[in-house]
Design brief:
The chain has 336 residues and is of the alpha/beta class. The protein has a single domain, classed as Rossmann fold (3-Layer(aba) Sandwich). The chain has eleven helices and seven strands. It has a seven-stranded parallel beta sheet, with helices on both faces. Helix 2 packs across helix 9, helix 4 packs parallel to helix 5 and helix 5 runs parallel beside helix 6. The longest helix has 42 residues. Belongs to the short-chain dehydrogenases/reductases (SDR) family. One of its GO terms (cellular component) is endoplasmic reticulum membrane.
Length: 336
Amino acid sequence: MTGVVLLVVATGVALLVAFLLLLCLVAPLTGPKPLSLSGAHVVVTGGSSGIGKSIAIECFKQGAFITIIARNENRLMKAKQEIEKFSVNDKQVVHTVSVDVSKDCTYVEKVLKQAQEKLGPVDMLVNCAGTSVNAKFEELDAGRFEQLMAVNYLGSVYPTRAVITTMKERRLGRIVFVSSQAGQVGLFGYTAYSATKFALRGLAEALQMEVKPYNIYITVAYPPDTDTPGFQEETRHKLLETKMISEASSICQPDHVARIIVKDATQGKFSSAIGVDGHLLAILTSGMSPAFSIADAFAGIICMGLFRFIGLYFLTSFNSIVLRCMVQKEKSGKKD
């Protein structure tokens, strides 16, 4: 009897593996066609530094024409000179636009229209402009919540509105929203920041349903802590609890993050994760997000239960970290 049960189980596992392999073979036939960046016009907001600049460089290496948008003109010019070093042909152009993408939707549409007149219609928009603040909820002024929502959320809405109509007319386009792992799971000290990054995912899911019939694909990128000027500045004022959580994983380099985001975006993947922990987190928090392929969807269904347990374990570990921090602070206070 035991032998029969084992045979049935082995047969079931073999059929499951065969089914998954078949899905992996069929998936490329059903997914979007990769977007070639050679000669394409790529717009990157927040493109003067950090991940945004690295994304612009990666696209330029692949033959794209680049428009980088940021507020600081000096940083824009330095970034332009740096990006131009990676040209693959003498026709490529790097166009700069100094504007705050979170302030005036009409003006953002105007400057992007001018950019398209110079370099052609936008093939890929990367919304990378953003800022962060790390503090406890009650210690944050209400104005900081408004500021972060304006920069991190509306700063992505306005440029997207400026290019979406032309993309629909051309039946072609990629739009990237650079969120964060803090946009997948709320973290201590990020009540203002996490909310804005969660908002990008909701926007992306709804927008993907609207534009998929027009051959436009949305990508939400969830980078971990990345060694950028913004991250270095934030670390100087980071809460002890948040520091201890961050130290549990390594810091990524912006060039590495950029390569993955660009690859996933050109392929039309909805979620872009970095590293093993990033992929696990993406599966754990996938919910009802669009799946890149049938194989991805099936793998998510199979793994969801297991990763739910993993998620609960991390939640327990997180609570232990917070408790240790509180005890450590209390001891430090007594010593003083």
